Amino acid sequence: MSSILRCGRFVFSTSGIANRRLKHARRGWALLIFLALGGALSVVVGGEWKSGIIWPAPPVVDPGPVGGPPSDAIVLFDGKNLSQWDGGENWLVRDGAAIVGKGNISTKQSFGDCQLHVEWASPKEPKGSDQSRGNSGVYLMGRYEVQILDSYQNETYADGQAGAIYKQSPPMVNACRPPGQWQTYDVIFHAPRFTPDGAVERPATITVLHNGVVIQDHFQLAGGTFWHKPPEYEPHAERLPILLQNHGAPVRFRNIWVRELVPPVDKQPIQTDTNETESKD
User: Fold this and answer.
1) 107 CB contacts (<8 Å, ≥6 apart)?
2) Measured between alpha carbons, how far is 199 from 103 in angstroms, rounded to an integer?
3) pTM (two decimals)
4) Which residue ranges make up each domain of the chain?
5) For residue 92, which of 241, 257, 251 has the smallest C-alpha distance?
6) 173-197 confidence digits (pLDDT tens)
7) Is it true that domain 74-260 has CATH number 2.60.120.560?
């Protein structure tokens, strides 16, 4: 039974009010039921997921002192001598530092994918400008250069300053310290891969931290770094020496070490053929 209420020009139906109250009540109960079911479902969905992949236990590595070589690193220069380098006899070792001398030097060992730590310092008394000021370079595999240059208040072309992948990628920022001060490069390098016929299967990539600041972020190289021609790849071995450049400036080096990057190898879970299982049953 319903009634009609009149109030001025407005007419209200008590049955309409009752219907609306019933609808609101139904919506409230529906919301409570939905929340209850959602809570129940979250218990099921929120359970731990496991891939089933079997990983080997990571080997234990002592990180060593800050900036020092980890326990699994190959020390290339510890301040005593350059016996690990071809041509090292042509550079001077003094006060724990190797000073650029005659010619380039390259490691006697060859490396591919690696983590490289190098500390360097341009001359305390800067001479010249642009590319003639504290110039040297670190060449991965003897052909992919991370530029060394005194870029502290020294203008030059962007892809030729300190931390540049020479003539391919400028550093994201200029993190250079004043001349004479020690600076660090921490490099993560992945060597290129070539197919048997010499085509590029996977380009080289490089990440560089200059004084702890990321300046190259997984940059993909277009090929070797050259001053006289565009970058291009030339097929080469998977492992080659690291080279330090003589560019006519007495740049100093110390605390050089390298780690070979060996990713863990997993064992995939055994796949069960459900159709075969069902047929056996």
Assistant:
1) 76, 84, 85, 86, 241, 242, 243
2) 32
3) 0.79
4) 4-45, 74-260
5) 251
6) 999 999 999 999 999 999 999 999 9
7) yes
